[in-house]
Amino acid sequence: MKDPLDSPRNADRSADYNAADYCSTKEAAAVLGVSHRTVQLWVENGTLQAWRTAGGHRRITFESVNRLVDGRRAAIAGSAPAAPSAPVATAQDKPRVLVVDDDPLMLRLYELEMAGWGLDLDLIKAHNGFEALIRIGERRPDLLVSDLNMPGMDGFRMIRTLREDSGAAGMNMIVVSGLDRGTIKAMGLPSDIPVFPKPVPFGELRTAVENGLVRGPERA
Q1: Quick one: 96 and 74 in the same domain?
Q2: pLDDT tens by residue, 51-89
Q3: Distance (Å, whole) CA 167 – CA 182
């Protein structure tokens, strides 16, 4: 049976390919919480839209992954039991902080350090800019703390995408990066975003996080 990804229409897409609009099968599986094989099957049956590169790799559209996430979230919301009459404290009552870093050990370090700050944060984690955009779509954070140099969609592209979105343009952001200041400036990071080096000065970062939460925008 002929692979639908090998059609001439898909081959022509390489001419106007924009990496920010696509993700790999592995990235889609991580975001959707399913196996690599499940993503392949969803591509084959049309649930996810994708095309194949000249090197034979699938590239899945960000739009179709986002649509599937929205559909699953709506299905869960529709089957959720009625809320109890008495108010119950949940993670949604806490300040939401999204931390983005491609290093799992760094994410764990953030988690451990922030847990000791006594701020009672709802910490959300993402491994790259693409996954971060999905998390923001699911649950709008009060503050974003992000690395810049990441595979796939890096921090620069993610921040540009957010700044171009009227619904997220006002989100408070903090950058933590091992890149030097000259490179960061040359790459076009907005000057209003605080930048901290690596190794992370967690004492200074805590102050910046507290300040960012104090002046945080209204939640979506």
Answers
A1: no
A2: 887 777 888 888 888 887 777 666 555 544 554 544 444
A3: 30
